[in-house]
Amino acid sequence: MVEGKVVLVTGAGGGIGRDIALLMARHGARVVVNDVGASVSGEGADVGPAQKVVDEIVSAGGEAVANTDSVSDPAAAARMVEQAVQQYGRIDCVVNNAGILRDRFFHKMTAEEFDAVLKVHLYGSFYVSRAAANYFKEQESGCFVHMTSTSGLIGNLGQANYNAAKLGIMALSKSIALDMEKFNVRSNCVAPFAYSRMIGAIPTDTPEQQARVEKIKQMTPAKIAPICVYLASDQAAEVNAQVFAVRNNEIFLMSQPRPIRSVQRSEGWTPESLAEHGMPALKGSFIPVERSGEVFTWDPV
């Protein structure tokens, strides 16, 4: 599917990123395996995880190289893209998968906790994508696969930083798709359901939370990789600016914000008329205050 392509996968030392890197290589891609080797909260660093995945790819007959730069630093993001070009002569796909968690209820969240998560998820996706964009423009081809989350698309408790970053990534992807379509560059999002270190940080204080985590454990990271390989392939040439969710063996095309219902008064609105007429007319179409788990209520197939 991706024979001869050069793919950079960030956060690929374990979990979802590892399985994406392995399957990309199995389908013929040359892979730059990026991972700083940090904890789920982003602390510490270890070159081991990225190199271990490279060793797996090479032992299976593929081509790969390790990178331990941080996506949260624009210069480091540029270096990882340069490494791909120097090592393999080009770059064809960026999979923005790197992420950390600093979960905290909003009224307790610190500025540092908010900033750290946005730096890795949202800024990191921008930095790496921006570094690759010039190469994609010059060669008039390329694609981005960004990891978003239903926590951002729908909502989740205690993750204002993560949710803001993940919803921002959807808008970033759409902007890239719009701005670079004329250069034959595509940008899409994947919202993965899979058990990994990231999911391991979900609270399990209540029976309901424990049951939710047990369901998620059934969904392995390997289930996320196929759609990423497909999106990186030439067979996905007409797939652009879309958001997919992958939940075990289910693949969803997710909605994007569009008008639902409108009200109009020829004389214009006042606060009073909005209270008496406008909001009551719209109320039946209000979006509920829900979490992701309250929308995806059935067991994964």
TrEMBL record:
Superkingdom of the source species: Bacteria
Domain Ketoreductase positions: 5-201
Database matches in InterPro entries: KR_dom (IPR057326), NAD(P)-bd_dom_sf (IPR036291), Peroxisomal_Beta-Oxidation (IPR051687), Sc_DH/Rdtase_CS (IPR020904), SDR_fam (IPR002347)
One Pfam assignment: adh_short
Family: Belongs to the short-chain dehydrogenases/reductases (SDR) family.
Protein name stated in the entry: SDR family oxidoreductase
Organism lineage: Bacteria, Pseudomonadati, Pseudomonadota, Gammaproteobacteria, Pseudomonadales
